[in-house]
Design goal:
By secondary structure, this protein is an alpha/beta fold. It is 22% helix and 23% strand. The protein has helices at residues 33-36, 62-80; strands at residues 7-9, 12-16, 28-30, 41-46, 83-89. β1 and β2 form a beta hairpin.
């Protein structure tokens, strides 16, 4: 069971989605959008929402950027749709011009 391997910090328990087997447990699950696919959670927190898609790299072609941005948007959709009861989406600081595109 993944929760037996969770780390305790003060009064909280965490478990990595790499180790999470889907068993219900009172722990904060931490992981990537890839690892969350196919799972659902009571509460989901997504920090830095305005950081995706990431800016186009100087060496990246327009087509490659479009493809990557589309992939990042799909990954964000997966993350947003994992929440059953609540979804918290954080936005840090405004991006300077040319540092990202809104979805």
């Amino acid at each position: 069971m993944a929760c037996k391997h969770s780390q305790t910090t003060t009064h909280r328990h965490t478990v990595s989605l790499k180790e999470y087997d889907g068993t219900t447990c009172e722990a904060v699950k931490v992981g990537t959008y890839h690892r969350a696919k196919g799972l659902d959670f009571a509460h989901v927190c997504i920090p830095d929402r305005n950081r995706f898609p990431r800016p186009q790299h100087a060496s990246e072609s327009t087509d490659a950027y479009r493809e990557r941005a589309q992939l990042e948007r799909r990954q964000m959709y997966v993350a947003l749709t994992r929440a059953r009861d609540s979804l918290w989406v954080g936005i840090r600081e405004p991006l300077a011009a040319g540092q990202g595109a809104p979805c």
